[in-house]
Amino acid sequence: xxxxxxxxxxxxxxxxxxxxxxxxxxxxxxxxxxxxxxxxxxxxxxxxxxxxxxx
Length: 55
Description:
Shape: rod-shaped
Number of helices: 3
Helix content: over 70%
Order of helices and strands: HHH
Oligomer: single chain
Low-confidence stretches: none
Distance between the termini: 29 Å
Radius of gyration: 15 Å
């Protein structure tokens, strides 16, 4: 049971990272004022968008 649990967790974490990169890339398309209203900064989004990609 441990193998399947760790495999599932790995897949879920990879998909979450992929989703985060996608959302960050889309948020970077917004203007600075809109980002500020959401409590985000362009620098923060760029840092998070530079996650490693395996393929």
